[in-house]
Backbone:
C-alpha cells in the first residue's frame, strides 16, 4: 500500500494518545503558514467524533484546518471518522465500516496536489490497530514521509520513546526527530524532567527538535494556541526536514 504523495511532508506521531500530536502539528502548521507556504493537512483516521448536523466531525481535524488555513473541506482533511472514542479497529468493528484506505489515499492526494508541504497527523501510537492486520505503522509506511515523534517530558518517556523509535527504524522509516511536549521549566527540580530531553536524544541517536512548554492556554479545538507554543517550534527548519532525499 502506497499513497504516492508528491510534495514534501512530515508524519507526526506520538508515543501514546493524548501526548500532544495536534498541538505540535498545529504549531508547525502555523510556522510554515507564516513563512508564506501553502500548508496541506491530513488527519486520515479519527475516532471520538461528534455528530454535527448528521455529519461526524473531529475536533483535531478542525484545529488542523484552522491553523494551517487549509482550503479543503473537513471530509477531505479527515476522510475516515468514527463516533466511539476507541481504537480505529474497534470503532470500525462496532460501526460495521472498515477503514477505507483507498478513500484515505484519494483524499491525501487531493490535498497534496494543492499544497507546498503536507503535515499528516496519526491516531494514537504506532501500534494502534486500524484493522485485524494493519496498524498506524502501516499507514506511516504508505505515506513514506519522515516522522516526527511527539513525546512526554516526565518519568516513563525514555522507555516509550525508545520503543516507538525502534519500531520506526525497524520498518526502515526515516526519523526526523523528537518534540518534547508539555515541558514545564518550573518542574526541573524533578530529576527525570530535567534530564529526559538530553537522554531522549542520546538513547535514540537523534535530535530533540523542539521543547514545547506546557501552557494552560492551549485550546486547539477553539483555535487558541499561545505564542509561546509556536515560538518553541519556530527554531526548526521544518521544510528542510520535510524534503525527500535526492
Residues:
Amino acid at each position: 500500500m502506497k499513497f504516492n504523495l508528491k510534495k514534501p511532508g512530515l508524519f507526526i506521531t506520538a508515543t501514546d494518545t493524548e501526548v500532544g500530536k495536534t498541538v505540535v502539528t498545529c504549531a508547525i502548521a502555523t510556522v510554515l503558514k507564516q513563512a508564506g507556504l501553502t500548508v496541506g493537512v491530513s488527519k486520515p483516521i479519527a475516532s471520538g467524533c461528534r455528530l454535527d448536523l448528521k455529519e461526524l466531525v473531529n475536533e483535531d481535524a478542525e484545529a488542523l484546518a484552522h491553523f494551517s488555513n487549509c482550503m479543503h473541506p473537513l471530509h477531505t482533511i479527515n476522510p475516515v471518522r468514527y463516533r466511539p472514542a476507541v481504537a480505529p479497529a474497534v470503532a470500525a468493528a462496532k460501526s460495521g465500516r472498515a477503514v477505507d484506505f483507498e478513500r484515505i489515499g484519494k483524499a491525501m492526494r487531493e490535498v497534496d496536489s494543492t499544497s507546498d508541504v503536507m503535515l499528516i497527523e496519526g491516531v494514537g501510537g504506532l501500534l494502534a490497530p486500524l484493522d485485524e492486520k494493519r496498524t498506524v505503522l502501516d499507514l506511516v509506511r504508505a505515506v513514506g514521509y519522515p516522522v516526527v515523534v511527539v513525546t512526554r517530558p516526565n518519568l516513563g518517556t525514555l522507555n516509550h520513546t525508545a520503543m516507538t523509535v525502534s519500531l520506526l527504524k525497524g520498518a526502515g522509516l526515516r526519523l526526523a526527530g523528537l518534540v518534547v511536549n508539555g515541558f514545564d521549566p518550573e518542574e526541573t527540580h524533578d530529576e527525570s524532567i530535567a534530564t529526559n530531553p538530553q537522554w531522549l536524544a542520546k538513547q535514540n541517536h537523534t535530535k530533540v527538535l523542539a521543547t514545547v512548554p506546557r501552557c494552560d492556554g492551549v485550546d486547539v479545538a477553539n483555535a487558541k494556541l499561545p505564542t509561546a507554543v509556536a515560538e518553541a517550534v519556530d527554531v526548526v527548519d521544518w521544510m528542510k526536514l520535510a524534503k525527500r532525499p535526492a
